[in-house]
Amino acid sequence: MPWKDGKKWVYSITYDEGCEDLLKYALPLHRKYGVPGHVALVASQVGVPRNCPGSSYDGMMILSKAQLHDLFQEGWGVSNHSLTHCGVTLENGGREVLEARQVLEETLGMAVPMFCVPGDNTGLPGALKYAEEAGVTSILTIYDRVNTRDTDLLHLGRVPLHTEYPGPFYSVFDPYKRIHQAIDAEGWIIDYCHCPMPDKPVHPAKDCTTQELEQRFEKVCEVGGDEVWLAEPNEVVDWILEQRGKI
Ligand SMILES: [Zn+2]
Questions:
Q1: What is the pLDDT of residues 139-195, one digit of tens each?
Q2: pLDDT in tens, 188-246
Q3: Which of 2, 80, 219, 227 lies 20 to 30 Å from 10 when distance is taken between CA atoms?
Q4: What is the C-alpha to C-alpha distance for residues 247 and 244, in angstroms, rounded to an integer?
């Protein structure tokens, strides 16, 4: 019994920033394929336009508390994507990790034990330094790899689902990306997107299109059948912690 209910592998997907357009361009596909979603939220920017100059998503409206609670009712989950998205360092982790968790929990009225490193993986050391103090039980990175039941929960990898990888590779969208590896390893894919859009992604290396997102969900369901656990990341972490507690 590798995973909950005897499932052989796990598929999750996360959307950094939590743009309101997910309701239009991703949520209908989640309902159609029975995949729960997850948003990583900048704690100081819930229900307001994103304020992160230089970001491809700057100015886009972020989901409100009410919209988020509707999504939670459908099985979606949330993580703490720092206080300002300006980067986590060994010096500012008290604010960007610990204070961010407090602000987000106060805003949403719920526990948020998962942290999602903003920007790139250079913020991981700062996040790790403050994880224990902030009560963080898992950390999402953008190391492109499949997780397993034995993965360190403070180093969770994600598998970017994008239209085109940056140069010098320029590799194209692959709806099967890491799926067969996950099956072989009895692993856990956490997909990574921001806000898929029809026909053209906001950023080709940070997103796919809505059509590609559907192709991906189709492949996960077609190849995974009854053997894939379609799960929200916090649910998987809770399950892993429960299993480890039993040993
Ligand atoms: Zn981000």
A1: 999 999 999 999 999 999 999 999 998 899 999 999 999 999 999 999 999 999 999
A2: 999 999 999 999 999 999 999 999 999 999 999 999 999 999 999 999 999 999 999 97
A3: 80
A4: 5
Domain ranges of the chain: 4-246
Gap from CA of 88 to ligand 1 centroid (Å): 12
Q: How far is the CA of 119 from the centre of ligand 1 (A)?
A: 5
pTM summary value: 0.97
> Rounded to whole angstroms, how far apart are CA atoms 137 and 114?
6
Architecture per CATH, domain 4-246, reads as Alpha-Beta Barrel (3.20)
Contact 24, 47 (CB under 8 A): no
191 contacts 158 by C-beta, under 8 angstroms: yes
Q: Report the alpha-carbon distance of residue 51 to residue 57 in Å, rounded.
A: 9
Q: For residues 61 and 239, what is the distance between their CA atoms, to the nearest angstrom?
A: 33
- Span between the terminal Cα atoms of the chain, in Å: 15
Enclosing H/E stretch for 233: helix 233-246
- Beta-bridged to residue 49, according to DSSP, are 61
**How much distance in Å is there from the Cα of 18 to the middle of ligand 1?**
9
The amino acid at 46: V
As beta bridge partners, residue 147 has: 188
Centre of ligand 1 to C-alpha 216, Å, is 22
